[in-house]
């Protein structure tokens, strides 16, 4: 009996021991080492960064970084001293967003900060198709091409908070600036279209009407009149202007300059081009007028007319309205009575150099707009009689004087060839005719020139 009891006790102990052994198919015991891909089982801290306070701090950095005076949008992260992170979605972004910039060298792409960061870093990655091929730093200077830029600024804020702001976009780097002329030989009274291509620090959202490009002003200096005229942004990466060759310009060799200035500072010459002005023969015209007609031509009357004409020509649309050749303002059958530039004498005395073309036609003949544009004056002048002035853009204005009727109003936009008035003999006139003039950047030029030369051809030169 005792032996049976002992056997039963041993069996019970064996069964009990088997129950405490781990099964071969059970999960292993938890380890104190967490694999790199595993998420730590840490409960969120009660001291995490308050979103409201982070937003307030982020607003202080809104628009903090500018390039050439334009704000950049940034993605901001703020942490506290314990490293707790608060991501703020666009709270520091401006409407400018992701931008493309154009520049000659990377040093022109210099970020400025309203609140200076403790440190910042600028990097450029060359773009070639969909691939990033090499990272550039500002010290590498310029290499033409398109790059992605990143600006990383680190700020230490008050109350132990820290911020990192990342700005990114694209930058297009050009080579050297070059001036291209429609021709390098011109005559007195001609027009000279000019295009500049190369390095312009400008952003893609600049409106075509702007002549100031990202804070830089570009002007064309013309030594034959010792004057400057603005160049206008064209096609995103070129500047365009129609240079005037004054009828009184001295013949000879000249060198024009493309000048760049910023914030009213001293201009920098960034490109030059040579041109030659040829002399032009102008005939003499002896005019016979009645005493009543001649009494109209006085210095005070001329001064009154000129003031109104200067106002009408004071603001030209920077972009040209015209495309292709200008057209004749009269139907067939007119007679040229006074050529542009003729030296006019009255009673044997020099009166003036004729700054337009006088085109005789029957009273009431339709007068057409020589090119599309906006009417900047339509009214009566003392010497010029009933007159219309049209802005064709790029600093070019046409004028139509001595009309019997005016068919447009100031502010109207007219298409090329539209009827705008009728031939007359009002003002200082000896008979029905159209006094047809053309002004470029404040100087009278030959109105026939754009009827024979396409002023936009320089933008699309034909391949030889």
Describe the protein.
The protein is mainly beta and 464 residues long. The protein folds into three domains: 51-173, no CATH class; 178-278, Macroglobulin (MG2) domain (Immunoglobulin-like), CATH 2.60.40; 284-452, Distorted Sandwich (Glucose Permease (Domain IIA)). It has five helices and 35 strands. Strands 3, 4, 5, 7, 8, 9, 10 and 14 form an eight-stranded mixed beta sheet that branches. The longest helix is centred in the first third of the chain and has 18 residues, at 2-19. It is elongated. 33% of the residues are buried. Residues 1-48, 90-98, 129-142 and 201-211 have low confidence and may be disordered.
- The shape, in one word, is elongated
Q: Looking at this structure, what is the CATH superfamily of the largest domain?
A: Glucose Permease (Domain IIA)
Structure classification? mainly beta
The CATH class of the largest domain is: Mainly Beta
How many strand segments? Answer: 35
- Give the C-alpha Rg: 38 Å
Q: What's the number of helices? A: 5
Give the mean pLDDT. Answer: 76
Number of domains: 3
| CATH architecture grouping of the largest domain | Distorted Sandwich
Rounded to the nearest angstrom, the distance between the terminal CA atoms is: 125 Å
**Named CATH topology of the largest domain:** Glucose Permease (Domain IIA)
Low-confidence stretches: 1-48, 90-98, 129-142, 201-211
**Percent strand:** 35-45%
Helix content: 10-25%
Largest sheet: 8 strands, mixed
């Amino acid at each position: 009996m005792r032996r049976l009891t002992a056997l039963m006790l041993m069996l019970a102990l064996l069964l009990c021991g088997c129950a405490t052994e781990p099964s071969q198919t059970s999960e292993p015991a938890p380890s104190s080492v967490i694999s790199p891909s595993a998420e730590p089982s840490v409960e969120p801290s009660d001291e995490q960064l308050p979103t409201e306070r982070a937003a307030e701090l982020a607003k202080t950095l809104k628009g903090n970084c500018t390039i050439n005076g334009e704000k950049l949008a940034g993605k901001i992260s703020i942490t506290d001293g314990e490293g707790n992170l608060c991501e703020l979605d666009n709270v520091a972004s401006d409407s400018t967003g992701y931008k493309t910039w154009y520049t000659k060298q990377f040093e022109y792409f210099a970020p400025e900060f309203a609140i200076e960061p403790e440190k910042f870093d600028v990097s450029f990655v060359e773009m070639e198709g969909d691939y990033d091929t090499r990272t550039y730093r500002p010290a590498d200077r310029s290499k033409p091409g398109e790059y992605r830029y990143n600006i990383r600024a680190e700020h230490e804020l008050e109350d132990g908070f820290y911020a990192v702001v990342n700005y990114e976009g694209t930058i297009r780097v050009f080579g050297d600036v070059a001036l291209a002329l429609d021709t390098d030989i011109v005559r007195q009274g001609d027009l000279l279209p000019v295009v500049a291509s190369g390095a312009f620090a400008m952003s893609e959202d600049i409106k075509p009407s702007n002549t100031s490009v990202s804070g830089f002003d570009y002007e064309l200096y013309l030594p034959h009149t010792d004057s400057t005229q603005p160049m206008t942004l064209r096609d995103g990466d070129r500047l365009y202007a129609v240079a005037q060759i004054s009828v009184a310009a001295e013949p000879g060799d000249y060198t024009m300059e493309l000048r760049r200035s910023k914030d009213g500072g001293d201009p920098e010459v960034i490109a030059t081009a040579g041109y030659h002005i040829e002399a032009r023969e102008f005939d003499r015209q002896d005019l016979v007028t009645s005493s009543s007609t001649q009494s109209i031509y006085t210095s005070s009357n001329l001064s009154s007319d000129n003031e109104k004409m200067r106002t009408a020509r004071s603001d030209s649309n920077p972009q040209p309205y015209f495309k292709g050749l200008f057209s004749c303002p009269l139907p067939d059958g007119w007679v040229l009575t006074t050529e542009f530039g003729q030296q006019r004498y009255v009673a044997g005395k020099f009166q003036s150099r004729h700054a337009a073309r006088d085109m005789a036609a029957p009273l009431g003949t339709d007068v057409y707009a020589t090119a599309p544009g906006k009417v900047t004056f339509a009214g009566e002048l003392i010497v010029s009689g009933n007159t219309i002035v049209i802005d064709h853009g790029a600093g070019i204005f046409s004028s139509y004087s001595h009309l019997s009727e005016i068919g447009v109003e100031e502010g109207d936009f007219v298409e090329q060839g539209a009827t705008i008035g009728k031939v007359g003999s009002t003002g200082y006139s000896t008979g029905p005719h159209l006094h047809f003039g053309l002004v470029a950047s404040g100087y009278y030029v030959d109105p026939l020139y754009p009827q024979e030369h396409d002023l936009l051809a320089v933008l699309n030169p034909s391949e030889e």
